[in-house]
Design goal:
The complex is a heterodimer of chains A (493) and B (494). By secondary structure, chain A is mainly alpha-helical. Chain A is built from 19 helices and three strands. In chain A, 63% of the residues are buried. The chains are: A mainly alpha (493), B mainly alpha (494).
Chain lengths: 493, 494
């Protein structure tokens, strides 16, 4: 594998870190502050984008920053999977920054500078995690992300957000210190390295029971992925302002969780190792249970954002399930779903936030007839939910297609059944929202027949992400190529 | 050969003398004198550290007398590092202390600076010396001065805390002195290198065993190793904050240094881990110390008091690491001397700033502090993350070595205790953050309302800068911990 040494991955991480002092110093000039956020976001995206051609040619971009111990440096390595994730996160960051302006100003939220600073820190950590060359670096950025998100979750500083913040910490920090840290150190103790390698780092040091315990410690320890029973922080975290729920709890934070699990499965244990002990099935089983249960819970939720949160829990497990299939198509589908779900789900969260800004409504039962008042938002909602369900012509269809092929490839009929029934459940909890929004009688409608959308800064972003979801059905190339390239690298091309 | 090694110790000593004398003429002269003394000391320590890294151990004979008769300063990588640490912490703290001494012990400022310097002289001397009896004398100088400093604090509670400290401190010193006496009985020498050489042929001697155990117990009392810790929490939390800031990071860590020095240089690895079989027992004691310290910290309602129990917990880390009997453990213990000193210092600097503004740091008084003192709180948050062990702060990396050492030895209970204590520390500090962050009248409110603009009322700039610098150094030291291990600790252990 050809490698290029370059400072670009570091720059991509640093950009939004370095902009924080500027944000603080311009805290009394909101327009200046927001411009800086944009500039940093765009530079970050361009840096990430500038690495894309090299990665697509099958090269890797590496940079070692600090030598800590043999086999465990603080180092970056940009490969196809990391690129895929970084591309999604950094592009959506720009759109979310725009949305934040509309949302936070629309609601006259307090502490907007603090909010912008921690948001920038969180996105820095996300990109860092995407580009990590080894488990130590990944753990570092994982922890930074956990801590940077806490003030965002607890933004309202009231009793409810205090409870949510506490639950967030217990689940996220508790599992990463309590489970991942010892598991990581045990790996280092056993093998003397933490470097992600395409065949894994273990060469016969582990018995099956030990490997099982270690794998479970990682899978549950990365609780950001929302696998049951470590999922309940996510619905609680919905007290955060909607831009946080949208970017962090549908894209960045939760996907760092599944991304870490993918890295551990593919880079630490290795596909062949897991196949030889048949441990992929174990993870796939946990993911399947999570998919079905969370979809059922989502059906019962009336609060819009909580329904979306349970939907996210289920969709994250699709990704884990796909990778745990350990077949080429399944893994491609899982990785692709990182991108497809991101664009779809962020649209839905934007819609929820836009409705809240425009009408103050949080509950689905209060949204009967809202389609007449906010038609653009609700059309975007339709596209987003189609993508999550996996209907053509949206991007979600492509990733589900690969996932289904993956189950056939692995001859896993039960998992195929899980995927298909979950899609039905997804439809069951999204379609009524849309249906009630447009198709209701005059008496049922809770809104006047007058178009009154949220501020432009809220509407434009959700239109953009909806259009991207739509376009990804026709042009899935950058993401699909990256996913296929990543799988080829892992399974040894 | 130049005199940097002795300058490290002698300049603060002379400064103490002149600071005391100058106060007779003009009270305000003593502060600059103290500052200059410690600045020269820190500079010399830096010079010595660089030289030791470049060209190996330095031996300096006091007044030209040859050991074993004369007193010898023997500076290798380990104590060069500790000297650098002690002198720079003392120097930085002195800068931050100007305002807080003015506020807390204004009428006795000159005596504060004099005694402060003597205390630092004691710590530096203890670290530099290569003579066992000289070590005892200097431990007593440090201890006596710290009894006095503690007594300068809280007018109601400090005298009793100080008295308690004196009683237990004297017992600890006596144990150590007795141990040295036994060693002298067996070897007829007090020079560390000399004693070590003679001990080679007395491995089975019960006198040596007695000496070893007495020395260790003496040091464990002095370093507050659970359950010999009872003197520490009150003494450290009722003393003036300018003194807590320097004694909390340095005193116990220097005692750990002496323990490691005795283990490696005087008694030797082979004697401790091959002849005696105490390793597992002490690691168990350390495990208990870690858990006990963490749990007792949970019960505290005062921020300063809570931190003193965390020190007790951290002592367990270092004792356990040093007694693990493998290179990883010793590496972790030595690295943690540096890291723990820095993070405790950062923590107490932040607490000092808070004390300067709100006097009483009971947890219930801390509401709204993120709004009121954002810079101080940023420093406190970084220090807290280091104590919890969040990368890339330095606390994570010493934990890394300690846990790996425990895995290598199979001491899984110790690894578990480290993890559990990290979790408890997370609870401890996020409890503080919650109090500082959330509104007291915790009613749900409408968006955009109910957030009164809190006015920023920060501590003086001199205190803020030091606190900020030290907190940032936690990240820098953490990122360069690989370099520190490779240039200082591993060459020392070889």
């Amino acid at each position: 594998m050809e490698t290029i040494i370059s400072i670009k991955p570091l720059l991509a991480v640093l950009v939004s870190l370095l902009v924080i002092p500027v944000l603080v110093s311009s805290s009394d000039k909101p327009n200046v502050r927001e411009s800086w956020t944009f500039i940093a976001g765009i530079i970050k995206f361009l840096i990430v984008l500038s690495m894309l051609p090299a990665v697509l040619q099958g090269k890797q971009i590496v940079l070692t920053l600090f030598k800590i111990a043999p086999g465990a440096d603080i180092a970056f390595r940009v490969d196809a999977l990391g690129m895929l994730f970084a591309l999604v996160a950094s592009s959506l960051y720009i759109i979310t920054s725009m949305y934040s302006i509309g949302y936070m100003r629309g609601l006259k939220e307090h502490g907007q500078t603090r909010f912008a600073c921690f948001f920038a820190l969180a996105i820095s950590a996300t990109i860092g995690a995407a580009f990590s060359a080894n488990l130590l670096t990944l753990y570092l950025f994982y922890e930074v992300l956990s801590l940077a998100t806490y003030p965002l979750v607890a933004h309202h500083q009231d009793a409810k957000s205090k409870r949510a913040g506490r639950r967030y910490l217990i689940f996220i920090l508790g599992t990463s210190i309590g489970l991942v840290l010892p598991a990581m150190l045990y790996c280092y103790h056993a093998t003397g390295t933490l470097e992600f390698a395409s065949g894994g780092i273990f060469t016969g040091q582990l018995s099956k029971p030990a490997a099982t315990v270690l794998l479970l410690m990682f899978v549950f320890g990365f609780a950001k992925s929302g696998l049951m029973p470590f999922h309940s922080w996510l619905p609680a975290a919905m007290v955060a302002p909607t831009p946080v729920s949208a970017l962090l709890h549908a894209v960045a934070v939760v996907k760092v969780g599944v991304f870490s699990i993918i890295r551990v499965i593919t880079g630490i244990f290795g596909v062949h190792f897991l196949l030889s002990f048949n441990l992929g099935a174990l993870v796939a089983g946990i993911a399947s249970v999570t998919i079905i249960i969370s979809s059922c819970i989502a059906l019962t939720q009336d609060e819009f954002k909580r329904r979306l949160a349970y939907s996210t829990i289920g969709q994250l497990s699709y990704i884990v399930l796909g990778v745990a299939l350990l077949t080429p198509k399944g893994m491609t589908g899982g990785m692709l779903h990182i991108a497809m779900h991101a664009f779809g789900k962020i649209t839905l969260f934007f819609c929820a936030g836009a409705i809240f800004v425009a009408t103050g409504k949080k509950y689905i039962s209060q949204m009967v007839g809202i389609g007449k008042r906010m038609p653009v938002t609700m059309m975007a909602f339709l596209i987003g939910s189609m993508s999550i369900i996996g209907l053509p012509p949206t991007g979600g269809f492509i990733s589900k297609w690969y996932l289904v092929l993956g189950t056939l490839e692995g001859d896993q009929m039960i998992l195929l059944f899980v995927l298909l029934s979950s899609s039905l459940l997804n439809a069951a909890y999204f379609m009524p929202v849309f249906y009630k929004a447009f198709f209701c009688t005059e008496e049922e409608s809770m809104f006047e027949d007058k178009i009154e959308e949220a501020p432009m800064m809220c509407v434009i972003p959700l239109v953009i992400t909806a259009l991207i979801s739509f376009a990804l059905f026709f042009v899935p190339q950058p993401f699909l190529n990256l996913a296929q390239l990543a799988v080829k690298g892992i399974l040894g091309g | 050969m130049d005199n940097y090694p002795v300058l490290i110790v002698v300049t603060p000593l002379l400064a103490a003398l002149f600071a005391g004398l100058a106060a007779w003429i003009e009270e305000r002269l003593s502060y600059p004198i103290a500052l200059i003394g410690l600045a020269i000391s820190t500079f010399s320590a830096f010079k010595v550290l660089m030289r030791v890294i470049a060209s190996g151990t330095i031996q300096y004979r006091m007044a030209g007398w040859a050991p074993p008769i004369g007193i010898e300063y023997r500076i290798d990588l380990l104590n060069a590092m500790v000297l650098m640490l002690v002198s720079s912490v003392a120097f930085l703290n002195l800068i931050a202390s100007y305002k807080s001494v003015e506020q807390e012990t204004n009428d006795r400022a000159a005596s504060f600076y004099t005694v402060y310097l003597l205390f630092v002289v004691g710590l530096l001397g203890v670290t530099a010396t290569g003579d066992l009896f000289n070590l005892y004398v200097l431990i007593e100088i440090t201890s006596l001065t710290s009894y006095a400093m503690v007594a300068l604090g809280d007018r109601d509670r400090a005298p009793l805390a100080s008295l308690n400290y004196i009683f237990i401190g004297v017992i600890g010193a006596s144990f150590y002195l007795l141990g040295v006496g036994y060693l002298y009985m067996q070897t007829g020498s007090l020079n560390m290198a000399d004693v070590s050489r003679i001990l080679q042929s007395h491995q089975g001697s019960s006198i040596v065993l007695t000496a070893f155990i007495l020395c260790m117990i003496g040091l464990w009392i002095k370093m507050a190793f659970f359950p010999l810790h009872v003197w520490l929490p009150n003494a450290y939390s009722y003393s003036p904050v300018a003194f807590s800031r320097v004694v909390a990071p340095l005193m116990t860590k220097v005692m750990i240094y002496i323990m490691i020095r005795l283990m490696i240089t005087v008694f030797g690895y082979d004697y401790i881990f091959k002849t005696l079989h105490l390793s597992s027992a002490v690691v168990w004691l350390a495990t208990i110390a870690i858990l006990a310290g963490a749990i007792m910290a949970l019960a505290q309602k005062n921020l300063k008091k809570m931190l003193t129990y965390i020190i007790i917990c951290e002592i367990g880390y270092m004792v356990g690491g040093a007694w693990m009997g493998n290179q990883l453990g010793m590496t972790g213990a030595i690295l943690h001397i540096l890291n723990d000193a820095l993070m405790t210092f950062a923590m107490f600097l932040a607490v000092g700033n808070i004390v300067y503004k709100i006097k009483d740091v009971d947890l219930s008084n801390l509401t709204g502090l993120f709004g009121k003192m954002p810079w101080t709180m940023a420093g406190l948050v970084l220090a807290a993350f280091s104590i919890i062990g969040v990368p890339p702060t330095c606390g994570f990396f010493s934990k890394w070595y300690l846990i790996l050492a425990a895995f290598e030895k199979g001491a899984y209970q110790f690894a578990a205790a480290l993890i559990i204590s990290s979790l408890i520390c997370a609870v401890l500090f996020f409890r503080v953050f919650e109090i500082c962050f959330f509104n007291t009248d915790s009613k749900d409110h409408e968006h955009g309302n109910g957030h009164p603009q809190i006015k920023i009322e920060e501590a003086p700039v001199s205190m803020l800068i030091i606190s900020g610098l030290v907190s940032l150094s936690l990240i820098v030291v953490g990122l360069f911990s690989g370099t520190i291990v490779n240039t200082i600790i591993l060459p020392f252990l070889k």
